[in-house]
From TrEMBL:
Protein name: MerR family transcriptional regulator
Highest classification ranks of the organism: Bacteria, Bacillati, Actinomycetota, Actinomycetes, Kitasatosporales
Organism: Streptomyces incarnatus
Protein origin, superkingdom: Bacteria
One Pfam family of this chain: MerR_1
Residues that span the membrane, as ranges: none
Domain HTH merR-type: 1-66
Gene3D superfamilies: 1.10.1660.10
InterPro entries for this protein: DNA-bd_dom_put_sf, MerR-type_HTH_dom
Length: 91
């Protein structure tokens, strides 16, 4: 967790807070250390940007969560559109 906090330029307390808010759920090593994926670090960094701009942490986590859901929906929409374009729209 300390290394992840250093990479983000934040504190372990901030990472714990975004974890408690349910924004990221790191895996645990055998020794009990939190292990963050690159995606989780990007998400935490985005929350940090919002907090640095004055957004309360709970609101920042909700905003980032919604942004992430929107990205997933847009990606799925592009995939479906591409598949429909490949196979035609006749059913």
């Amino acid at each position: 967790m300390g290394r992840a906090a250093d990479v983000l330029g934040t504190t372990p307390a901030f990472l714990r807070a975004v974890g408690e808010a349910g924004l990221v759920t790191p895996l645990r090593s055998e020794g009990g250390h939190r292990r963050y994926s690159r995606r989780q670090l990007r998400i935490a960094a985005r929350a940090r940007e919002l907090v640095d701009q004055g957004t309360p942490i709970e609101a920042a986590c909700r905003i980032v969560s919604l942004e992430d859901q929107l990205d997933d929906a847009l990606r799925l929409n592009r995939e479906i559109s591409r598949k429909l374009g490949e196979h035609g729209t006749d059913t």
